[in-house]
């Protein structure tokens, strides 16, 4: 049999329905429905019972709400057919879809705004600037609701837009940033392919015109004037000029240069990278008297030139700069500037070394006076004539002491000494032969006892402080006092050296162990000078290989007698030694007597510091009285010396014990304090004369008792017997200062 099933068509519902009655969507129907109402139709799923309602008997579906396809494009539902009596499914549950049919209810929107684009000025027509895109929420698959086209609402005289792609392009080729650097273009997007009734949206596109180097630099003025003093040092800035450029950024970077030959020589132009100004500065010293006005041609040109715009013209400009030189009072100038003079070292005092000349460069041409800067010639070796500039010798010259002299000569205006110029002058002292040649060192040689004739024992060279232009040439020979020498011979090698050889067979140390060989050396002059040097030759014992084993040190002169010069030198040395010994002995005796006199007057000042407080008069142990004892060796007072104590008679009657009695203090009416006064005055005088003493008062304590004190020593250290009985009652009348002492005794 034929299978039963559902019968329906595809369901559609129009969006944005605005009617008052429910909108009929469609009918679901089972082929088993005979129309007697025995079948009940129901739906479930999205919007069932709310948006969509179904008639249970007929199966008609209606939409009760306004739908929006842009929010939801379709709804999925399920249909059931049941027996009204038994509620059993007569058909299997089936799924169906209700599609929302689109209408053109959404306008195009530009979602990526705001739009900002840029294009270079002078770009050709059709140059792409940027692209804009609009989107339409309508169904692109149904009708033309989502088909968008573009057009220009504002700015169409400068830009166009592609209707399909939205690409904005230039409509003209003469966009000039210097005239207008920004454009606001309004672009419209219309759906329905631009047909009548289509919806539209618009956006504003900002187009910035970027700069290109299409403007050359231009000087605002064709001439500039500056002034500068003639004494301005090299590198001094004279002034600044600047060429204007309508471009921006690196297109305004410029370089400046001097175009005329005179300006290139005298002036220099640099570019200030921050301000793009030309800085004109002095390149060579200026001179008002030579030229008062200079004309300089300065050229400005762009650093970066765009080859696309070369045909627009030259990208450079020139201007004239007039520099006026101002006159100032200048110091004299030395002419010619030669700074080297020469003079023979044997020139007499007052000889002319050379002449310096200086002139006043000013128009007034003031007279010039000369002087030598004495800080460069402190010894006044040279003088100069203040009027003529002639330099003369002031002292005897010696090339060997100073071969060169560097002095500074001053030139000043006669009526204005503040205008001073300086010139360094080098004076070379030319050599004359005034120093005899000398042996290079005090030569000493050794010869073996078994030496053979003709054996080389020493090669001799000499030195000469002179420096002849033709070089040194020395001649060697034995001194006249050694002409009778038969032991050694001298050979001039002709290269400023000489060789000493043995002249006999063998030597004997026991007979003579040292030989002094005088050698005469003569230079080539002129005039020829000579000197005599001595070669000391020691006779030594040698082994079979010629190696020296031992030598003696006793000297024996080859000649019979010493030369007069040697004798004089020996006597002078002995005399100097004697004088030195006598001087040392005299100084020692003087120093000893000085120490003795000082010891006689040695008044030792001892300040004993105690950091604890004493116990008053009852404290007999806090202070050591012996610390105040004078270092003078006072005479001891014996019992028989007339000390005048109460126990004097008993003490004198016992000479065997020699017991010292304590003296009784008696105030003498004619006590002499001159010793104290003289001593203190002497100390004050010494303190006043000592420069190392600080300039403030000082407190000094003197433990000086005096040599003639009427009170003898109270010490009983020398008492031989401790069992002597004495009466110390007299201590009670000595006064309150001795009250504690009287109580102790």
Category from helices, strands and their pairing: mainly beta
- Label the CATH architecture of the domain at 438-548: Sandwich
* Broad shape: elongated
Query: What is the fourth-level CATH superfamily of the domain at 438-548?
Result: Cadherins
Tell me the Rg in angstroms. 66 Å
The stretches of 5 or more residues where confidence is low (pLDDT under 50) are: 553-561, 627-668
What does this structure look like?
The protein has 745 residues and is mostly beta strands. Among the domains are: 10-101, Cadherins (Immunoglobulin-like, Sandwich); 109-210, Immunoglobulin-like, CATH 2.60.40.60; 223-326, Immunoglobulin-like; 333-430, Cadherins (Immunoglobulin-like, Sandwich), CATH 2.60.40; 438-548, Sandwich (Immunoglobulin-like), CATH 2.60.40. The chain has five helices and 41 strands. The strands form twelve sheets. Strands 34, 36, 39, 40 and 41 form a five-stranded mixed β-sheet that branches. It has a four-stranded mixed β-sheet with strand order 2-9-8-5, with no helix packed on it. A four-stranded mixed β-sheet has the order 10-16-15-12, with no helix packed on it. A hairpin with a 5-residue loop joins strand 29 (382-384) and strand 30 (390-393). It is elongated, with a radius of gyration of 66 Å. The termini are far apart. Residues 553-561 and 627-668 have low confidence and may be disordered.
């Amino acid at each position: 049999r034929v299978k039963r099933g559902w019968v329906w068509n595809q369901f559609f519902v129009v969006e944005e329905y605005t009617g008052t009655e429910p909108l009929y969507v469609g009918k679901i129907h089972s082929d088993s429905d005979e129309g007697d109402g025995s079948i009940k139709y129901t739906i479930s799923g999205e919007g069932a019972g709310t948006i969509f309602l179904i008639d249970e008997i007929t199966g008609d579906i209606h939409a009760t709400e306004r739908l929006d396809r842009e929010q939801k494009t379709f709804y999925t539902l399920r249909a059931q057919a049941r027996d009204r009596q038994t509620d059993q499914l007569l058909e299997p549950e089936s799924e169906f879809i209700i599609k929302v049919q689109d209408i053109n209810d959404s306008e195009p929107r530009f979602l990526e705004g705001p739009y900002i684009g840029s294009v270079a000025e002078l770009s050709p027509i059709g140059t792409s600037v940027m692209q804009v895109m609009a989107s339409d929420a309508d169904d692109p698959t149904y009708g033309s609701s989502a088909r968008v086209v573009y057009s220009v609402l504002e700015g169409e005289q400068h830009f166009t837009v592609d209707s399909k792609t939205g690409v904005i392009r230039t409509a003209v080729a003469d966009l000039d940033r210097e005239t207008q650097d920004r454009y606001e273009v309004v672009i419209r997007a219309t759906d329905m392919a631009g047909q009548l009734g289509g919806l539209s949206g618009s956006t504003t596109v900002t187009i910035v015109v970027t700069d290109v180097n299409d403007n050359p630099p231009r000087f605002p003025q064709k001439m500039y004037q500056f002034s500068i003093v003639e004494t301005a040092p090299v590198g001094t800035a004279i002034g600044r000029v600047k060429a204007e450029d309508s471009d921006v950024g690196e297109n305004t970077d410029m370089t400046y240069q001097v175009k005329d030959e005179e300006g290139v020589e005298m002036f220099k132009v640099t570019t200030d990278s921050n301000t793009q100004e030309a800085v004109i500065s002095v390149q060579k010293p200026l001179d008002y008297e030579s030229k008062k006005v200079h004309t300089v041609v300065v050229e400005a040109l762009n650093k970066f030139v765009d080859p696309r715009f070369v045909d627009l013209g030259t990208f450079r400009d020139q201007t004239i700069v007039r520099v006026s030189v101002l006159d100032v009072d200048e110091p004299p100038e030395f002419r010619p500037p030669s700074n080297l003079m020469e003079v023979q070292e044997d020139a007499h005092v007052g000889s002319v070394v050379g002449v310096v000349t200086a002139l006043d460069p000013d128009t007034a041409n003031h007279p010039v006076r000369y002087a030598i800067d004495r800080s460069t010639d402190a010894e006044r070796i040279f003088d100069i004539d203040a009027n003529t500039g002639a330099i003369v010798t002031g002292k005897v010259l010696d090339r060997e002491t100073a071969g060169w002299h560097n002095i500074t000569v001053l030139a000043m205006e006669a009526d204005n000494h503040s205008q001073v110029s300086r010139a360094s002058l080098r004076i070379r002292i030319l050599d004359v032969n005034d120093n005899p040649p000398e042996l290079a060192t005090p030569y000493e040689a050794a010869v073996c006892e078994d030496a053979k004739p003709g054996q080389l024992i020493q090669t001799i060279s000499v030195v000469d402080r002179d420096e002849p232009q033709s070089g040194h040439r020395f001649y060697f020979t034995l001194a006249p006092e050694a002409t009778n020498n038969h032991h050694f011979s001298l050979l001039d090698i002709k290269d400023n050296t000489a060789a000493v050889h043995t002249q006999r067979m063998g030597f004997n140390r026991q007979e003579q162990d040292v030989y002094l060989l005088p050698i005469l050396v003569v230079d080539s002059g002129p005039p020829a000078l000579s000197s005599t040097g001595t070669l000391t030759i020691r006779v030594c014992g040698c082994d079979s290989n010629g190696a020296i084993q031992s030598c003696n040190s006793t000297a024996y002169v080859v000649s019979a007698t010493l030369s007069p010069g040697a004798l004089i030198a020996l006597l002078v040395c002995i005399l100097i030694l004697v004088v030195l010994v006598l001087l040392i002995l005299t100084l020692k005796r003087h120093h000893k007597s000085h120490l003795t006199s000082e010891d006689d007057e040695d008044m030792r000042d001892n300040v004993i510091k105690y950091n604890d407080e004493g116990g008053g008069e009852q404290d007999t142990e806090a202070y050591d009285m012996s610390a105040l004892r004078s270092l003078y060796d006072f005479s001891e007072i014996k019992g028989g010396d007339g000390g005048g104590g109460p126990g004097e008679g008993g003490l004198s009657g016992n000479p065997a014990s020699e017991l010292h009695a304590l003296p009784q203090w008696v105030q003498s009416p004619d006590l002499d304090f001159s010793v104290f006064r003289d001593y203190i005055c002497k100390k004050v005088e010494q303190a006043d004369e000592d420069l190392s003493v600080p300039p403030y008062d000082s407190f000094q304590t003197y433990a000086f008792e005096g040599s003639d004190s009427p009170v003898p020593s109270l010490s009983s250290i020398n008492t031989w017997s401790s069992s002597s009985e004495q009466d110390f009652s007299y201590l009670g009348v000595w006064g309150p200062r001795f009250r504690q002492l009287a109580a102790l005794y």
